[in-house]
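*** Residues and shapes ***
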Amino acid sequence: MEKEKLKENIMHGTVSFPLANYRWDKDTQFFVKLHWHNETELVFFKTGLFSVNINMREYKISAPAFMFINSGDIHSIVSEEGCRESAIVFDLKMLSFEYFDGIQYKIIRPLLESKMQFPQFVFEKDKIWQDVKKLYESIIGEANNKELASYMKVKSYLYQLIACLYENNSFINADNIEENDIYKIKNVKKVLTFIHNNYSEKISLNKMSDLVGMNTQYFCRYFKKLIGKTLTEYINEIRIEKAAECLIETGDKIIDIAISCGYENIGYFIKRFKEQKHMSPSEYRRQTKSK
């Protein structure tokens, strides 16, 4: 089976050191669409207001705050203009021990198997705030150095971070996560993956409801409640994002891009594009290519 397109396929870091750090310091709105990945992510909201969706739950976050994204979490982030944030994304397997010991048994393996999960948020008022902030800054400070000694330091800081969370009982026991929530996440992944794989084709409500074994009426309410958008709104959002990528990365005619993204009516495509990007496709191409 083809890898789900909803699943992020970017390699974070390198094969020899699977950790990367990212930063957003532009004055425009920060937007990360719904996706998921196997890696663990630690996000630092430095300034501003952020709207976060994690496994179909909405959170409004006022910086400063830290957010953990556990392996497999479906998530998206939207900020107001002028916000500042950064993140580290890493493969937990880099912390696994070849020699099996108590740490591997009680902490590392449960994290790898998702039987234990990182806390969703750490706020400034929390007891561990200063420790987490100091360790995060230490990781960022060494992560871009390509020296083996720096990689060793980063790993040591990650172990210290895990020790801090463990010592303060901050980890979440997966047994406390409701089975119904896990079922919902699996269902949503099915639907979103299908849309990402087939956005260029006609996607019917009947097809989507059959995919998760629901009648169409219930599925409409179910999808809107979990995603915060109707099925049509979400499909259009994905199609417009794909069209925007094509406008930047190719010289194809706008009508050809519209058709390749599932729009047979060019007028409807332009209307939808303007609603989402606040400018026409031709204006978008011109502005982005001139930067």
The two ends are 38 Å apart (CA to CA). The longest strand covers residues 40-47. Residues 179-289 form a domain with the Arc Repressor Mutant, subunit A fold (CATH 1.10.10.60).
